[in-house]
Amino acid sequence: MTGIPIYNVNNNCSTGSTALFLAKQLIEGGLCDIALAVGFEKMAPGPLGAGHFNDRASPLDKHLAKMGEMAELQNLPHTPQYFGNAGLEHMRKYGTTELHLAKIAAKNHRHGVRNPRAQSKREYTVEEILNSRRIYGPLTKLECCPTSDGAGAAVLMSEDAVKAHGLQDRAVEIIGMEMATDTPAIFQEKSCMKVVGTDMTALAASRIYQKTGVSPKEVDVVELHDCFASNEMITYEGLQLCGVGEAGKFIDAGDNTYGGQVVVNPSGGLIAKGHPLGATGLAQCAELVWQLRGEAGTRQVPRARIALQHNLGVGGAVVVTMYKKGFQNITSNNVAATENIKENVPSKL
């Protein structure tokens, strides 16, 4: 109704971030000064991806065949088998256990209690998570994202447009954004972790740290794609939040939550907040913008300055985005709240 250009984007679970990526490119290319990225999803009941390709080949058929070379596939939904087998591979190689997955899920459910927009607002013990219904391999129901409906949006502006509208105190800057896709290694090597995207995550993360000059240790808050607890575990290493094979130690030390090295998924992540596929990337963006503005309420990460986003779609594309406050010399009305919020947040959640 406005006559403006509209682009439809579909990139599996990384659709929302792909829309954000395109909007950023349009502004940087000088084609517009203000762009709106919108993502939404109304999901059918049942497991992710079930029943969508009954009349045609699935774009993930090759990935599934590769997974079948390494694991005995069952007559179950494919997605938990992908990520369950990736988790099992990490356990065999590095000694992590089902307890580590349960700790991740417990952390995300605790974080979700503080998010009024979360789909799940109940706290669960590690024991409750381990004893919930077994889905596949090491994964239980409470370690999996739920079926979700939802929407998200982000307004992107050029620096001149921000100044023209007097929004310097609200602006959050995208200082780096990298998209990567599947590498040849997923079909050349025998690795379930590579099939679900560990290589492309590592590639995008490496590029973003190199181009921004920001080190992983400087990141304060992360929203990453925890469609299953096992994916959060292996993504710690891909994003260089810890060394390869050190995810178990990272989890046990509480370095993934308040009081630790970096707060991962303060929103509750996909496990608690929900995963409406097309909206997820923009919901992650919104959470990190609120964190950097000091507007995240009781889930506020103290003194958050650098934020990192990871949004992944199997089959395969990943978008890794880094944010900071746009105008560092402009004081927000929420700075005091950001500095003092530590009093309201336990040192370890």
UniProtKB/TrEMBL annotation:
InterPro entries for this protein: Thiolase, Thiolase-like, Thiolase_acyl_enz_int_AS, Thiolase_C_2, Thiolase_CS, Thiolase_N
Superkingdom assignment: Eukaryota
A Gene Ontology cellular-component term: peroxisome
Pfam families, A to Z: Thiolase_C_1 (PF22691), Thiolase_N (PF00108)
Record carries keyword Transport: yes
Main localization of the protein described in the UniProt heading: other
SUPFAM superfamilies the record matches: Thiolase-like (SSF53901)
Start and end residues of each Thiolase C-terminal domain: 193-316
Molecular functions (GO terms): acyltransferase activity, transferring groups other than amino-acyl groups; lipid binding
Stored Gene3D superfamilies: 3.40.47.10
GO BP term, pick one: lipid transport
First-level EC class: transferase
Cellular compartment(s): Peroxisome
EC number: 2.3.1.176
UniProt KW keywords: Lipid transport, Lipid-binding, Peroxisome, Transferase, Transport
Residue span(s) of domain Thiolase N-terminal: 4-160
Record's protein name: propanoyl-CoA C-acyltransferase
